[in-house]
Amino acid sequence: MLEPSLDLYGETYERVDAILSDLLVKCHARYALIVDRKGFVLVHQRAVWAPKPPSLDSLATLIASNHSANVAIAQLFGEAAFRETVQQGTDVGTYVEELGPEALLVTVFDGTAALGKIKLFTKQAVERLRTLLDQERGPPPPLDLDEGWSDDNAKLFDGLFTKRTQP
Amino acid sequence: MSTINFATREINFKLVYYGPGLSGKTTNLKQIYEHVPGDSKGEMVSLQTEDERTLFFDFLPLDLGKVNGFKTRFHLYTVPGQVFYNSSRRLILRGVDGIVFVADSAPNRLRANAESLRNLRENLDEYNLRLGEVPYVIQVNKRDLPDALPLDMIQAVLDPSRRVPLFEAVAAEFRGVVEPLKSVSKLVLEKLAQKA
């Protein structure tokens, strides 16, 4: 199985971005992210009033891994997956919905938001996103990775470990 | 398969350190974290047991920089090496782009090395992947052990056809840590460049 990927670009990306912004306003959430199943952030939005988020790389990786583990737990009981993944702390919570086989929609909220609203509007956002993503899209833009691309990256890689020793 | 984000112009790769328990996978990531400057790395996340054994995974994001307008990023993961954490290992392999197999040089770990490699093959099979299709290299760690097995013996067990790049290492001293990472990174970059 090759991992299905969700390529977002151009107008589709703008519209996805707008749906996430709308979600934040409607349910008064702090952040909304789309992460792929491998744990990479594809799109993210932050409410204007929200504090700076933690590392999005760490958040996305932990959400995706946690979701995979939850699916595995569900399958131990003969379920395809658990229907909802909600985590609530004293101040902050996360709500995760599957966005097809490729990605997850994550809503991060705090005590100023009602969980019912978070669930309702996140589910609605998933439907809107799915409709948008199911529409026929053109091919992704060309990558233009010329022959020197991997060589140039290799040079950057060398630089990664020599920066510290430079005066 | 790499994740390409056309909107943010990022190309992301997932590299996994695999190998038997206590072979030094987490040590590799800790050393990389220590030696990469702050602006090129993110937070390192470790999900460990109380006795500091990997429970689920360690995670370290690295930013290489921009080439042709695209930022290249590597997400490094380790798997838990202990035999009974196989479900976790399988989950971490999802979407893997490259693998560093960390072998242990201790004489009593030769069988564990072989079993871990077999386990890697089986877990990749769950995703319909073959080891030969995924870029991978072998790091033979703990070469400073006084009774370390000869390299040829370890290679004969793990890669009898001698096709896989192999590196000696003492990861705890940051020796032989960069080379396997660089080698597997080059392989995954070349693989994408060929496809593009």
For the structure shown, list the relevant keywords.
heterodimer; A: alpha+beta; Beta-Lactamase; B: 196 residues; alpha/beta; Rossmann fold; 5 helices; 8 strands; 31% helix; globular
- Approximate strand percentage of chain B: 25-35%
Largest interface: A-B, 47 and 45 residues
End-to-end distance of chain B: 12 Å
Rg of chain B, Cα atoms, Å: 16 Å
Question: What's the quick description here?
Answer:
The complex is a heterodimer of chains A (167) and B (196). Helix content of chain A is 44%, strand content 19%.
Any overview of this molecule?
- The complex is a heterodimer of chains A (167) and B (196).
- Helix content of chain A is 44%, strand content 19%.
- Chain A is an alpha+beta fold and 167 residues long.
- Chain A has one domain (10-142): Dynein light chain 2a, cytoplasmic (Beta-Lactamase, 2-Layer Sandwich), CATH 3.30.450.
- Chain A has a five-stranded antiparallel sheet, sandwiched between helices.
- The longest helix of chain A has 21 residues, at 56-76.
- Chain B is 31% helix and 28% strand.
- With 196 residues, chain B is an alpha/beta fold.
- The radius of gyration of chain B is 16 Å and the shape is globular.
- The mean pLDDT of chain B is 94.
- Chain B has a single domain (3-195), classed as Rossmann fold (3-Layer(aba) Sandwich), CATH 3.40.50.300.
- Chains A and B meet through β2, α2 and α4 of A and β1, β4, β5, α2 and α5 of B.
Topology overview:
The complex is a heterodimer of chains A (167) and B (196).
Chain A: H1 10-27, E1 31-36, E2 41-46, H2 56-76, E3 85-88, E4 92-99, E5 103-110, H3 115-134, H4 148-162
Antiparallel strand pairs in A: 1-2, 1-5, 3-4, 4-5
Helix pairs in contact in A: 1-3
Chain B: E1 3-5, E2 10-18, H1 25-35, E3 45-48, E4 54-67, E5 70-78, H2 86-92, E6 98-104, H3 110-126, E7 136-141, H4 151-158, E8 166-168, H5 178-195
Parallel strand pairs in B: 2-5, 2-6, 6-7, 7-8
Antiparallel strand pairs in B: 1-2, 3-4, 4-5
